[in-house]
Amino acid sequence: MRKLSLTAGMLLVAMPGVSQAHVKWFCAYDTTVPPLPIRDVITPTFLAVAGLFCGLMFTAYVIDRVVDTSIWAKRFDNAIFRSDACTSTIIRVAVGILFLVLWESGGIILTPELNTTSNVVPWLQLAIAGSMLSRSTLKYGAAGIMLLYVYAIADYGAFHLMDYPIFPGIAVYLALTSVENPQFRALRMPVLYASVAVTMMWGAIEKFGYPYWTFPLLTTHADLTLGFSFDQFMYIAGFVEFSLAFFMLTGTALLRWACAALLLLMTSAIPEFGKVDAIGHLLIIASLLAMIIAGQRTIQLPPALARAGVLKQASILTLGYSATVVVSFALYYSSQFLAGR
Questions:
Q1: In angstroms, what CA-CA distances link 52 with 3, 82, 200, 249, 264?
Q2: What is the pLDDT of residues 118-155, one digit of tens each?
Q3: N or C: which end of the chain has fewer CB within 10 A?
């Protein structure tokens, strides 16, 4: 248990890149095969790691709330650079680059494993890239992204595309950026936060349900497991990813640190897996950069919870974290079951 505690702390700072490479891009997979039975996932090791991360999350919330109530934290937060134009530009440039690369590569719908022989898709991708040049045309780019997402669902199934809520999230972000109504435009960052967080949490549950998909990568990068068995490593990797994503939605003063840690996890895989991983994760990387600039206050806690004491807030949020893990398992397994019928 002590080894698990020490390593979990290390992984929160710098997760080995192999755990963040999207496994479907590099290894054989079959989403029609059911995930591991839940009794084979909820092992004593899983429960130990889960308990450890609940403790870490409680501690993080206590520190987060204490820091958030301090005067110097508010002064620091007010002094941090924020620019709506900068965050919007980051997203638009990333979308433009991604779809230019997809157009030039050909045969890919949205991500490396989503292949197509359509002659129309590359030209739609080029049109999406071009639409990023003007705010007035962003809504057309948003519609194009949703068309490609629906097209991919038709070819690969809804369960497979549930891996990528980042794409409809980016589409909504772009559509809201193009409107004049300030109340609607204010929803852009919460949508971006939610789509990134759900993408990461869904991927974390996949690590628990289909850990053996990643085992070939771990075999060729065994030194990155830090001496843990493959099963233990996948448990820790999944909880690191899930915990940071959940904290990104619910944190305040330390929210930027959660975004920065997730950014580190994403970029740590690039040296190992090259441009495929860099392009595949480009939208998430750009979104995290935009969220670091935007900072806290984009998603507000319920007023009753915000007024509660530090320990009560930390306890409720940790319970919410635990409940979200359970609900995510239920959604993942039920979605796969319905997809396989």
A1: 11, 35, 20, 20, 22
A2: 999 999 999 999 999 999 999 999 999 999 999 999 99
A3: C
| Cβ atoms within 10 Å of 264's Cβ, excluding its own | 17
Contact (CB, 8 A) for 49 and 235? yes
What the block records as the tokens of 292 is 């670091």
3-state secondary structure of 115: strand
How far apart are alpha carbons 190 and 174 in whole angstroms? 13
308-339: pLDDT as tens digits: 888 999 999 999 999 999 999 999 999 998 88
CA-CA-CA-CA torsion sign (213, 218, 221, 225): positive
Instruction: Please choose, from the candidates 125, 76, 127, the residue with its C-alpha nearest in 3D space to the C-alpha of residue 99.
Output: 125
CB atoms within 10 A of CB 275: 9
Structure tokens at 139: 């809504």
The CA–CA distances, whole Å, from 112 to 109, 185, 256, 273 equal 8, 31, 29, 13
pLDDT tens-digit readout, 63-74: 988 887 776 666
